[in-house]
Amino acid sequence: MATVHTAAGPIDSADLGKVLVHEHVFIVGEEFRQNYQDDWDEDAKVAEAVRDLSELKDLGIDTILDPTVLGLGRYIPRIQRIAEQIDLNIVVATGLYTYNDIPFQFHYAGPGLLFDVPEPLVEMFTKDLTEGIADTGVRAAFLKCAIEAEGLTPGVERVMRAVGQTSAQTGAPITVHTNPHTQSGLVAQKVLAEEGADLTKVVIGHSGDSVDLDYLMQIADAGSILGMDRFGLDLLLPFEERVNTVAELCKRGYADRMALAHDASCFIDWFDQEAKKQAVPKWNYRHISEDVLPALRERGVSDADITTMLVDVPRRYFE
Predict the structure, then answer these.
(1) Which residue positions in the chain have pLDDT lower than 50?
(2) Looking at the chain, which terminus has fewer C-beta neighbours within 10 angstroms, N or C?
(3) Can you give the pTM of this predicted structure?
């Protein structure tokens, strides 16, 4: 067993229950919101999130991992307000989300830079994991970084190596946003392993956007967890192909190296909300429980394999 820190306090890993490994509560550019989003109603947004996450709990999900970090608008006091009102665990992350460069706060300070100091990203991530985020008292429980179609840019590499070093030093697991069409999951595995990270404690996120079984099995054979985590985003890959890929990997014995999620959110300011609902109507927290699990069962995926993906794999990720 292991202690897992949530937005409402620490729990035992045995109490995580059924877990969706990649869900956001809010993706909100706070600087933009405070200056330009005149129609923001904080109380209403919190109430909507409480409703959505309570519905998810009613569908049998007990925990979500929320990889909202610097670059995506992480704001823990809002998450705490929500966590206090729901019977569902929200596990938060530390890290930095970029496809290219890093924020200017880190341009000039670091090893070999103008201010030649130890990597401040490692110090920052470690503090979030071991002491808490800002003055909230909430500790992050995992790390997050990203590598997209742009590849291993200097900024992306610096963040990824800092994440790998922090994981090696603290034992915290990692989730990586990847683009499977460029096979960037393999690049992430290589870099993280070079920094001493345990690849069995790494979720290669957005693997579910791919039907390339050879690539997916190569990731899994190296020990990492395949994040089949964009159910509902049918514009990127249709529902049938997503479900068929998971079913086929289960058939080949990979259920113990897959985890499920939607990569959904209660609110995201990247899109017009009504246009989003029309374009991807199933991109919500309910889709896996209501549609995906029945479809997997229809394709011969056993309840034991479903429990493995929803319960055992996330629990092992922290233990």
Answers:
(1) none
(2) N
(3) 0.97
